[in-house]
Amino acid sequence: MDSGNEDALDIIITNVVATFRTRCHLNLRLIALEGVNVIYKPEVGKVLMKLRKPKITASIWSSGKIICTGATSEDESKVGARRLARTLQKLGFRVRFSDYKVVNVLAVCSMPFSIRLIDFTKKNRPIASYEPELHPAATYRIKQIKATVQVFSTGSITVTGPNVQTVATAVEQIYPLLFECQKPLRK
């Protein structure tokens, strides 16, 4: 983006999803009985555990696979995952923190203008699709970087991608396309 005539866009990360393995079997019933901030869901075979700082929710399976959601940065996600592993160690499990990976990042961003979604979709087919009967946003998929952008007529966009860098790249790529489809300002 040309920073000479535009203000920088604020990309706000709202959720980082990461996975890791403990490399040991976990007794879900024991975690439910002795852990804190835990919800046991035996019908789906998992335990939900919440941490307050950093604020994350973890889905824990007996196989040792754990999915952490709710962090607002990649660093916060890793700190939360490590704290969770430590909590399980304190419950008596022989946890070894491994295979940590950020799998999804969700971010929101507001353009400083409104967007004509029908024009945007027509100019960017087949990458962009818009079905107002199903969803109020146009969907723009960037296959090369595995990112998806939801574009709303208000100028708000939500971006999902495999990491924070991909999300930022997606916003940079879509900005000029949105800029040429902006609604004229009413006087």
UniProtKB/TrEMBL annotation:
<comment type="similarity">
    <text>Belongs to the TBP family.</text>
</comment>
<keyword id="KW-0963">Cytoplasm</keyword>
<dbReference type="GO" id="GO:0009792">
    <property type="term" value="P:embryo development ending in birth or egg hatching"/>
</dbReference>
<dbReference type="InterPro" id="IPR015445">
    <property type="entry name" value="TBP-like"/>
</dbReference>
<dbReference type="GO" id="GO:0006352">
    <property type="term" value="P:DNA-templated transcription initiation"/>
</dbReference>
<keyword id="KW-0804">Transcription</keyword>
<dbReference type="Pfam" id="PF00352">
    <property type="entry name" value="TBP"/>
</dbReference>
<dbReference type="GO" id="GO:0005634">
    <property type="term" value="C:nucleus"/>
</dbReference>
<keyword id="KW-0805">Transcription regulation</keyword>
<keyword id="KW-0539">Nucleus</keyword>
<dbReference type="InterPro" id="IPR012295">
    <property type="entry name" value="TBP_dom_sf"/>
</dbReference>
<dbReference type="GO" id="GO:0003677">
    <property type="term" value="F:DNA binding"/>
</dbReference>
<protein>
    <recommendedName>
        <fullName>TATA box-binding protein-like 1</fullName>
    </recommendedName>
</protein>
<dbReference type="GO" id="GO:0005737">
    <property type="term" value="C:cytoplasm"/>
</dbReference>
<keyword id="KW-0238">DNA-binding</keyword>
<dbReference type="GO" id="GO:0006366">
    <property type="term" value="P:transcription by RNA polymerase II"/>
</dbReference>
<dbReference type="InterPro" id="IPR000814">
    <property type="entry name" value="TBP"/>
</dbReference>
